[in-house]
Amino acid sequence: MEDLINAIITELQGTLTTVRASAIWAAESLNPIIIPEFVTFPAVAVKDGRETFAPGYQDGEEIERYVDVAALVQVWKEGEAIVGADGVLRLYAAIRSALNDNTLSLSGYTLAVAESAGASKTIFTETDMAQMKVLTLRYEALSDY
Hints:
Elements: H1 2-15, E1 24-26, E2 43-55, E3 60-74, H2 80-83, H3 88-99, E4 109-117, E5 121-124, E6 129-144
Helix pairs in contact: 1-3
């Protein structure tokens, strides 16, 4: 899972031109989200999810790994944080485009699919109000025991 999280962060840092590299991080929690002080908006939080394991082909193991990726934009003007040019839906779409069907050149990974996304929601920090939309991705890998 650690290699997967790091690969996702690296991919997004190289793909998302509107987000500073330092504003893409591995999050400790998305509910409630904990935004480090060094992060500026727009931002992307990457959080590990559940894993499932099943016996696989030739004494190997089939692994499904789920990762949540949260798009975050600061609320400046009502409505624009959702549908504006710098809105959360635009950032979410860029994240989905970068990660869907992209196994990130990781050895053993056979599938990467954007599985679901919840509705965007408003979150509050000590100093800001932001809009957040979370994308859940499913990765399948084959591994030796």
